[in-house]
Write a structure and sequence with these properties.
Order of helices and strands: HEHHEEHEEEEHH
Radius of gyration: 20 Å
Strand order of the largest sheet: 1-7-6-5-4-3-2
Distance between the termini: 88 Å
CATH superfamily: START domain
Helix content: 40-55%
Strand content: 25-35%
Length: 190
């Protein structure tokens, strides 16, 4: 009888969570300082070909579209979580539609699939390079990931930080390579 009550309670909880009454929301901000000029950073952030090179944790899963981003552009990713989290939760999918593009200033996208919400990315040139601020406000819509978020929010934060950390490292290295190639190019006056 006790097992039946526990099973019923767990089933009721899962039903409530999956029914949308208790969907987990996340409001996270991440900032990167990239040691490269704003035009180089912005180009790397908005080129599908470049993103494929520098951010393997955000696996681009769509092909056949124009490389640059503009209002109405779409991008879909399979997000590979931190290794410690991947044992418990598989990669998740996000689909992004760009609703506002202010070149070298701001990107705003609506996010759907396993997460629903908004991502706003702000760019600012600084003396030492470029500061990027990512503002995520999303809800988890995948029922299994949503349920797991209630018992392991710290694990999700760790995974988010891991994915974003690999992105910061990859973008810094990519921009460094771009600048190195430009510095090694013969000048136009020669």
């Amino acid at each position: 009888m006790k097992i039946e009550r526990v099973t019923f309670a767990l089933g009721a909880l899962a039903g409530a969570l999956m029914g949308g009454r208790a969907i987990k929301a996340y409001d996270w901000r991440t900032e990167w300082n990239i040691p490269a000029p704003l035009p180089v950073v912005y180009e790397a952030m908005t080129s599908r070909a470049a993103v494929r090179e520098w951010w393997p944790d955000m696996e681009l899963v769509e092909d056949g579209r124009e490389d640059g981003l503009r209002v109405g552009s779409t991008v879909s990713f399979r997000v590979h979580q931190a290794p410690e989290v991947a044992r418990f939760a598989p990669p998740f999918r996000i689909h992004c539609v760009y609703t506002d593009v202010e070149p070298e200033n701001r990107l705003r996208e609506v996010v759907t699939e396993d997460l629903n919400g908004v991502l706003e990315t702000l760019f600012r040139e600084e003396p030492a390079g470029t500061r990027i601020a990512f503002n995520w406000y999303v809800r988890v819509t995948n029922p299994a990931l949503n349920l797991l978020g209630y018992v392991a929010e710290g694990m999700y934060r760790h995974s988010h930080d891991s994915v974003m950390g690999s992105g910061k490292k990859g973008l810094s290295e990519y921009c460094g390579q771009v600048l190195s190639v430009r510095d090694d190019s013969p000048s136009r006056e020669e």
